[in-house]
Design a protein that fits this description.
This protein has 722 residues and is α/β, with parallel strands linked by helices. It has four domains: 164 residues, Flavodoxin domain (Rossmann fold), CATH 3.40.50.360; 147 residues, Up-down Bundle (NADPH-cytochrome p450 Reductase, Chain A, domain 3), CATH 1.20.990.10; 140 residues, Translation factors (Elongation Factor Tu (Ef-tu), domain 3); 161 residues, Rossmann fold (3-Layer(aba) Sandwich), CATH 3.40.50.80. It contains 22 helices and 24 strands. The strands form five sheets. Strands 1, 2, 3, 4, 5, 6 and 7 form a seven-stranded mixed β-sheet that branches. Strands 9, 10, 11, 14, 15, 18 and 19 form a seven-stranded antiparallel β-sheet that branches. Strands 22-21-20-23-24 form a five-stranded parallel β-sheet, with helices on both faces. The longest helix is centred in the C-terminal third of the chain and has 21 residues. The structure holds flavin-adenine dinucleotide and flavin mononucleotide. The site of flavin-adenine dinucleotide has 26 residues, from strand 14, strand 15 and helix 15.
Length: 722
């Protein structure tokens, strides 16, 4: 098998896949070599990975003649995208094909067998309290044990993190120190990308430093291949209608396509009916949407404190713009079959067969800021010399990119229009924008997949086992004063859905409106979904799946709770309080009105801007306070009240330090922090360190030590995002 060249292997893969599509034979039923299989995660055995590949990646590399293995630890796709990008660059520069691996599909006890002529690259994100992503847990577990000597191992690491979190890039740093301790050789600098700054720029700078190391230390020779222009995918137009039952029109799974149930999870989200949607803010120019999903009969379960992933789609405006820029508007419904030409390197990012429009509406994130690398990669397809020059400049000159693209919040299609000299303010489709002749495989290669947006569930699984509620503030901001208004993709979808359901404030935007007009009103989405699957029996639906979190209540009601969460950080606390209220009602009905006498206090520190605008769930808290009198107590900080005073949750925590220290330290309670990671969580933690330190007779250093212990004991828990 190893005697096949890369090209031959790719050819075999294509032929087999095409046969499968034409014969309508499930590809799994065609006998192909193990390492060529790249279908779903089902069917993995103890000796094969979830992809149907051998779990022994060293063996796999030998079989396929690969010298590079790249592992990614990724939750929302960025590390995975970087892994694929670096694999492609290695192929383009050195003609070497890499094995790009999801670590959960492989075993690591063979790491010491990797020949010294090979290279292992780890692209690892960090989550939570410095924890690995779900798919890298087993890798980090392995690295935390006593490793065998790894003198042969040559490796590179790039960590993805966010410096607003206390444990910045903890996973990649831990991996690096474990490899170092085992005698492995890192052949380039330890890369770290900061999502609070410019992750993309950090990645690009790191990547630029590694080439000389690869050449000097591994003897790789640039120009080893002419594969730079070899596409990752073959995209073939099929002579069938989009309504053919095999064609994905935006469905996220086979089960959704065939209307079968299956188990609902991130691979097969449940298309959940929306029970209720309402606006929670009472004035001002911001929106916060409460949305309730019905999960009855789905078999989906959740526990109070969990997260829900909601799958967005791109707004009409962006889809139209992209279709026109690519000259695909008239072919929007053309059915395409997509096959990976190197399955170990690039997985097909969308279901297939599908249509051009479905890819742009449901599967790729065409709404996000265009990355510098993606812009650069389009230069070779430019329709004019001027356009090529613009893309070359924006793709290579950091400052120009920053001013002309990032500060304006331009998406990829807008950058292409800008480069071609088209009018960016005109409505897509109403003017003829320059049509770019870009192979669709290139779009699939460089535009990231659309990812679910996660929300802390604000309903209790005890009180509402058949419903999932969310509290979502609608993201809308300008990246700079001169920039366009940027509307967050997922939260504006929920706002649009709410407007459609309630008929209230529905933005009336005609198709021929200019971008400025659209800007003021927000994006419009096709809410009916693929084949009307998001609008059935007059009820709107959205695909959702649940994800367990570590944000859990203690079982005993006799343990004091301190809950700190301004803004939508209060979302899971509504769920916590509903949970306790449910138990309180039961206790009172069996033991009488004094049933809560020995319950420990629950203290909520909540913050918002103004009491008359964005005070979330005011009525609900009042009702809980009434029913749980003597147990539940709430303190509210207003940061923009008319009296001009700015009070934040940390100020109230300091004011009530007696309660906090008594509950957390003396009474061994639990403390929770939820919401903004960048400012709030830091400030609150600093305040806690100070007051706890003082209570122990020391200062913030003692407080910090105590907080670390409490975190390890899972009595201080954070659910924060930025
Ligand atoms: C565990 C967890 C729990 C969460 N819980 C909640 C919750 O309970 N409630 C809640 O409201 N949120 C919550 N979030 C945040 C939520 O997941 C989303 O991040 C948030 O709703 C914004 O998503 P979006 O799709 O609207 O914005 P996105 O489209 O993802 O955009 C995010 C930001 O990126 C920038 N951006 C996007 N496109 C561009 C562009 N073209 N140019 C420049 N900049 C751009 C903008 O600044 C924008 O605000 C949680 C997050 C996590 C991780
Ligand atoms: C809920 C949440 C928790 C995070 N926790 C940390 C952390 O503890 N340390 C850190 O350095 N980065 C943290 N990050 C930042 C991520 O590592 C970073 O955004 C990364 O780019 C995500 O990569 P991915 O898209 O491949 O999952 C966190 C991000 C989120 C959304």
């Amino acid at each position: 098998m190893s005697s096949f060249s890369d090209l031959e292997l790719s050819f075999i893969a294509i032929v087999l896949s095409i046969i499968a599509v034409y014969l309508h034979v499930p590809i799994k039923e065609i006998k192909i070599p193990a390492w060529l299989r790249q279908l779903g995660k089902n069917g993995g055995s103890s000796t094969t990975s979830g992809l149907g590949l051998s779990k022994d990646f060293v063996e796999l590399m030998k079989e396929s003649g690969k010298k590079v293995v790249i592992f990614y630890g990724s939750q929302t796709g960025t590390a995975e995208e970087y892994a694929t990008r670096i694999a492609k660059e290695i192929k383009a520069r050195y003609g070497l094909s890499s094995l790009v691996c999801n670590p959960e599909d492989y075993e690591f006890n063979v790491l010491d067998q990797l020949p010294s002529t090979s290279l292992a690259i780890f692209i690892l994100a960090t989550y939570g309290e410095g924890e690995p992503t779900d798919n890298a847990t087993s890798l980090l577990d392995f690295l935390s044990t006593s490793l065998p000597p790894l003198a042969n191992l040559k490796y590179l690491i790039f960590g993805l993190g966010n410096s607003t979190y206390q444990h910045f890039c903890a996973t990649s740093r831990l991996a690096d120190s474990s490899f170092q301790a085992a005698g492995a050789t890192r052949i380039g600098p330890l890369g770290e990308g900061d999502d609070d700054g410019s992750l993309e720029e950090d990645y690009l700078s790191w990547k630029d430093t590694i080439w000389s190391s690869l050449e000097n230390q591994l003897g790789w020779v640039e120009g080893g291949s002419s594969t730079a222009s070899i596409p990752d995918f073959q995209v073939k137009e099929l002579p069938i209608s989009k309504v053919h039952p095999s064609v994905y029109q935006g469905e996220l799974s086979k089960q959704a396509l065939t209307n079968k149930r299956g188990i609902y999870d991130s691979k097969n989200p449940f298309i959940a009916p929306v029970l209720e949607a309402k606006e929670l803010f009472q004035g001002g120019d911001r929106n916060c949407v409460s949305m309730k999903f019905d999960i009855r009969g789905s078999g989906m379960k959740y526990t109070t404190g969990d997260h829900v992933g909601i799958w967005p789609l791109n707004p009409d405006n962006e889809v139209e713009r992209f279709l026109h820029v690519l000259g695909l508007a008239s072919k929007r419904d053309t059915v395409i079959d997509i096959v990976s030409l190197d399955p170990a390197l690039a997985k097909v990012p969308t279901p297939s067969p599908t249509t051009f429009e479905s890819v742009l509406r449901y599967y790729l994130d065409i709404s996000q800021l265009a990355s510098r690398q993606a812009i650069h990669s389009f230069a070779r397809f430019a329709p004019s010399e001027r356009a090529r020059e613009v893309l070359e400049r924006l793709g290579t000159d950091r400052d120009a990119y920053h001013v002309e693209v990032a500060e304006k919040g331009l998406r990829l299609a807008e950058v292409l229009m800008l480069a071609a000299g088209d009018d960016l303010t005109a409505a897509p489709g109403m003017v003829t924008s320059t049509s770019w002749d870009v192979p669709f495989s290139h779009i699939l290669s460089c535009v990231p997949r659309l990812q679910p947006r996660f929300y802390s569930i604000s309903s209790s699984s005890r009180m509402y086992p058949d419903e999932i509620h969310v509290t979502v503030v609608v993201a809308k901001s300008r990246p700079s004063e001169a920039g366009n208004m940027i509307f967050g993709l997922g939260s504006n979808l929920l706002l649009n859905l709410k407007q459609a359901i309630t008929g209230d404030g529905l933005a009336k935007v005609e198709n021929n409106s200019t971008n400025e007009e659209k800007d003021s009103k927000g994006p419009i989405y096709t809410l009916t979904g693929p084949q009307n699957k998001y609008h059935k029996n007059q009820i709107y639906h959205l695909p959702i799946h649940t994800r367990p979190s570590k944000f859990r209540l203690p079982k005993s009601v006799k343990i004091p709770l301190i809950l700190i969460g301004p803004g939508t950080g209060v979302s899971p606390y509504l769920a916590f309080l509903q949970d306790r209220l449910h138990l309180a009602r039961r206790a009172k009905s069996t033991k009488g009105p004094n049933a809560l006498r020995d319950w420990a206090p629950i203290t909520l520190f909540y913050g918002c801007r103004r009491s008359d605008q964005d005070f979330l769930y005011r009525d609900e808290w009042r009702e809980i306070e009434r029913e749980m009198e003597g147990v539940f107590r709430m303190y509210v900080a207003f940061s923009r009240e008319e009296d001009g005073k700015k009070v934040y949750v940390q100020d109230l925590v300091r004011e009530q330090q007696g309660v906090v220290v008594e509950s957390l330290v003396a009474k061994k309670g639990y403390l929770y922090i939820c919401g903004d990671a960048k400012h709030m969580a830091r400030e609150v933690e600093a305040t806690l360190e100070d007051i706890i330190g003082k209570s122990l007779g020391g200062g913030p250093a003692e407080g910090g030590r105590e907080m670390r212990v409490l975190k390890e004991r899972k009595r201080v828990l954070l659910d924060v995002w930025s």
